[in-house]
Every structure is written in C-alpha cells, then in structure tokens.
From TrEMBL:
Name used for this protein in its record: Ammonium transporter AmtB-like domain-containing protein
Topology of the protein relative to the lipid bilayer: Multi-pass membrane protein
Superkingdom of source: Eukaryota
Main subcellular location: membrane
GO function term, MF aspect, one: ammonium channel activity
UniProt family annotation: Belongs to the ammonia transporter channel (TC 1.A.11.2) family.
Residue intervals of the Ammonium transporter AmtB-like domain: 27-376
C-alpha cells in the first residue's frame, strides 16, 4: 500500500521508537548472537556427530542439540538474572525470570566501571547499550549454551543421555552463573578491574576444567574405543569446524555491545590468531610426525580462537599473531607430550581434549592479554578514567 493511501489517523497512533534505540547496534548485536548460536546449532552438532565413531554419532549430536534448548529455557526462567541481575553475594545474582514484556523492551544495561572517584562515589554506574534488554538476554544466552556444549566434548562416546539431561541445568545454575556474574555481571572480579573480553575465563577455562572433572567422574570409554576412535566423516568434521570458526566473528565481535571501532578490530584479531595457530600446529605435526593431520589442524584452529578470546579487542594486530604462535605450540605440547607423561591427564578420558584446547588455551590467552593489552583499547571496552589495575 502506498504511503499516501495510509490514513493519517493510523500513522499518528503508531508507537514511536524510543529515543535511545540505535538500530545499527541492535542489528549487529542480534546478528552477532545468531552467529554464536550457529556455532552450536548446527556447528558443534555437526562437528560432534562426525568426529566420533559412527555408533556414537547420534548420541553426540543430540547432546549438543539438547543442551542448546535446555539452556535457553533455564536462562530466561532464572539463570540470566543470576548472572546479570541484582547482587545477593559477591559472586552471584538473585534468580528471577526474564520474560516480562515490560522488562524486555526497556533499554539494556550492564555494570560498566570499577573506577571510583576520591570521594568514594562510582564514576560510571553502568553501561547502557542502545538496544532492548531482550537483545542482551538473547546475546548472553548463546554464550551460556555454547559453554555447556563444549563440556560435552569431554564426555562423548560414553555419556548416558539421561545423566546429561540432568547435568545441563545443574551446571548452568551452580557454576556458569557464578563465573559470569563474578566477571561480567558486576561481581567481585569485575570490581577488581579484571577484564575477560569475550569469555576466555568465563567460558573456555571453566568448560575445560568442568569437562575434565566430569570425564574423571563419568569414567573412561571402553579400551577398544580409546585405542581406536576414528572420525566417521572427516568432511563433515571440517564443515562443523568451519561453522565454529566463522561464528567466532560474532563471539568476539559482539562483546563491545555495539558496532563501534573496537568490534571490527576484535573480529580481525580473531581470524588472524586462529589462522596463525592452525598453521603452527600443522607445521609441528609435520616436523614431529612427518605429515599433517586434519584433526590436528582443527585443534590448532580452536586453540587460536580460544586464546584470542579474552583479549580480542584489547590487543593490537601484531599481538594477535604472537598469541597465535603461542596457542599453536603450547597446547600442542601439553596435548602431544605432557599428556602422555602426567598420569592424571592420561588416566582421565577427555574425548576431544577439551582440557588442552579450551582450559590450557583459555588460561594462556588470559595471561597473554595481561602482558599485551593496549591501554587505549582497554578504555574502549571498560569506560573509565584510565586503564584498570589488572587486565587478563
């Protein structure tokens, strides 16, 4: 219908957009969240279903699919506010549902600064992104979901699906929300000035440690599976890995909470570090084992993506290359050499090596961020009168 044909009375009664809404920021944040969601569904669904033996393909894929759905429902009913709501403990927020329309359409807000004036007042009370709270709830949900799905990587090949169905809401409630609130939601680590740009600690370190611990308690696969566990489809493994890599543009590019000058830097650093890490891992495979490995290249890609995550928008391009060299070599060393020499690492059946690719790489990235972060870039991420006292 032409605009001239629309009655003026109808146009006058249309609800106006709020003054604070930035359509560009809102569109980018929704896009970034969807890219992260694609990492899980279908990315990790495909990766898990194709990297295991054929007999475990459906179970492994379904573990990822179930976790994505279960986390969403738990997230909106109680977990989001435990991670980003009103503080009840220095490391935990008050549980509450995030489904009310009058809550979701209001402007989003998050804690912003740990800097205080000399008179003791808070310099900047909160960040107020220029989009609705519903966008923030959606964006933070996909991060929570991918964390649980990463943990599943340590348990593939023997996890009972009923046990997994119970584990997902419990770990989300009593572990993930604590880390998220402490570092991102205004908790004690946030107040100390700790920066975790996009989840090197909250997501990857916690997933790696949790996966390793869960694998210890669940127990190992049967000996014949541990000794011979070839992927059932290499091409689909690469397809899932590719979705994971490309989705990381939203993973790191969305964490400035706007389409600002820091967002494209984070995206570029992410891809530079991943590519460097993949190449370094592949070269080490050739030098030590005499030939490259497709699975090794995927692992190198993942360690690069994980390593850059805590500092993607906080470091310069040259630092992303340095981090890529480190993430392609040190996790390779722990997986290929140290793993065989340390009894506890060898005894625990971490199916996809999540401890090495996420816990080791995530901790490495956090430490390197502390060394390589650029103060000016830090001020883009955490507003204040200067760089925080601790970064990483």
């Amino acid at each position: 219908m032409a605009a001239s044909a629309v009655p003026s009375a109808y146009l006058n009664n249309l609800p106006s957009l709020p003054d604070w809404l930035n359509k560009g920021d809102n569109a980018w944040q929704m896009t970034a969240a969807t890219l992260v969601g694609i990492q899980s569904v279908p990315g990790l669904v495909i990766l898990y279903g194709s990297i295991v033996k054929k007999k475990w393909a459906i179970n492994s894929a379904f573990m990822a699919l179930y976790a994505f759905a279960a986390v969403l429902l738990c997230w909106v009913l109680w977990a989001y506010k435990m991670a980003f709501g009103e503080k009840i403990l220095p490391f935990w927020g008050r549980a509450g549902q995030a489904l009310a329309q009058d809550y979701l359409v209001n402007q989003a807000y998050l804690p912003a600064s740990a800097h205080y004036y000399r008179n003791g007042t808070l310099e900047t009370a909160m960040i107020t992104p220029f989009y609705p709270m519903a966008t923030m709830v959606y964006f933070q949900f996909v991060f929570a979901a991918v964390t649980l799905i990463l943990i599943a990587g340590s348990l593939l090949g023997r996890m009972n699906i009923k046990a997994w169905m119970l584990f997902v809401p419990l770990w989300l409630t009593f572990s993930y929300t604590i880390g998220a609130f402490s570092l991102w939601g205004g908790g004690f680590l946030f107040q100390w000035g700790v920066m975790d740009y996009s989840g090197g600690y909250v997501i990857h370190l916690s997933a790696g440690i949790a996966g390793f611990t869960a694998a210890y308690w669940v127990g190992p696969r049967m000996n014949r599976d541990r000794e011979c566990f070839p992927p059932n489809n290499i091409l689909l493994t690469l397809a899932g890995a590719g979705l994971l890599w490309m989705g990381w543009a939203g993973f790191n590019g969305g964490d400035p909470y706007s389409a600002n000058v820091d967002s494209p830097l984070a995206v570029l650093n992410t891809h530079v570090c991943a590519a460097t890490s993949l190449l370094v891992w592949t070269i080490l495979d050739v030098v030590v084992f005499g030939k490259p490995s497709v699975i090794g290249a995927v692992q190198g890609m993942i360690t690069g993506l994980v390593c850059i995550t805590p500092g993607a928008g906080l470091v310069q391009g040259w630092a992303a290359i340095v981090m890529g060299f480190c993430s392609g070599s040190l996790p390779w060393l722990t997986m290929m050499v140290v793993h065989k020499k340390v009894a506890i690492l060898h005894q625990v059946d971490d199916t996809l090596g999540v401890f090495h690719t996420h816990a080791v790489a995530g901790l490495l990235g956090g430490l390197l961020t502390g060394l390589l972060a650029e103060p000016t870039l830090c001020s883009y991420f955490l507003p204040g009168d200067g760089a925080p006292s601790y970064v990483g």
